[in-house]
Amino acid sequence: MTVYDAKSLDKLIGKIKTKPKTADRAAALAINKTVTFSISEAVRDITTETTLQPSYVKGHIKRVSRAAPHNLKAVVVANTRETLLTRYQYHKTEDGIAVRINRRGGFQNIPNARVMKTPLRGSFKTGIALSNKHAVGHFKQGLHKGRGRTPGKSRKLQKIIQKARTKPYKVQVLHSRSINQLFVSARGRMQPAVKSKLRTEFKKDFRRLSR
């Protein structure tokens, strides 16, 4: 969850305390315009970094509250569920499925993987899946290539190992980072443009409302 507020405008608002109500109205307008801008920038950033489609990313980031003069805060949320690998570019290979997640990287082959309908009840989505026995090696390889082992990743691997022992031919549907994780990563890259937009819109609306 991301919160946009007027804290970055404190210095500017301090100079115009003679018109506090006007300043609050201008700040609320500026925040709401900046939120709309930020969502568009996030979609652009994420789809520049990954092979996800803009329509999919846009559908999973939304504003859930708007700023008002009496409450200078707007909230944007992004989907926290992991993203199916079939949302990215992929194609079949001789021994599995190759997936390209990041635009700067190439396709990574996943041996023994196959495309299938997800086993979720009522779902008509397709996913890239591995049997439990093959998923163990895939997740171990991912730990070595990733940013290191974390308690969460270790627990996930142990669950997969246990499933491989008891139900080796059941399947694991593979996922990548959630839209929320991608959004959090994008925020740092977006920050200069977002701050500039907020300042510009506030000044513009304050001048207009002060006439």
Give an overview of the whole structure.
- A hairpin with a 3-residue loop joins β5 (89-92) and β6.
- α2 packs antiparallel against α6 (179-209) and α4 runs antiparallel to α5 (151-166).
- With 211 residues, the chain is an alpha+beta fold.
- 48% of the residues lie in helices and 21% in strands.
- A 3-stranded antiparallel beta sheet has the order 1-3-2. A 3-stranded antiparallel beta sheet has the order 5-6-7, with no helix packed on it.
- The model has no long low-confidence stretch (mean pLDDT 87).
Run of helices and strands: EHHHEEEEEEEEHHEEH
Q: Which strands sit side by side, in order, in the main sheet? A: 1-3-2
Helix content: 40-55%
How many DSSP H or I helices?
6
Low-pLDDT parts are: none
Which of globular, elongated, flat, extended, rod-shaped describes the shape?
A: elongated
The overall average pLDDT, rounded, is 87
Distance between the termini: 36 Å
Radius of gyration: 22 Å
Class per helix and strand makeup: alpha+beta
E-strand count: 11
Q: What portion of residues belong to β-strands?
A: 15-25%
Give the biggest beta sheet: 3 strands, antiparallel
Sum up the structure in keywords.
alpha+beta; single chain; 21% strand; 3-stranded antiparallel sheet; 211 residues; 48% helix; 11 strands
Compose a concise summary of this entry.
It is built from 6 helices and 11 strands. The chain is elongated.
Task: Please describe the topology of this protein.
Elements: E1 2-5, H1 10-15, H2 20-49, H3 54-58, E2 61-65, E3 73-78, E4 83-84, E5 89-92, E6 96-100, E7 108-111, E8 114-117, E9 126-131, H4 132-145, H5 151-166, E10 171-173, E11 175-176, H6 179-209
Antiparallel strand pairs: 1-3, 2-3, 4-11, 5-6, 6-7, 8-9, 9-10
Helix pairs in contact: 2-6, 4-5
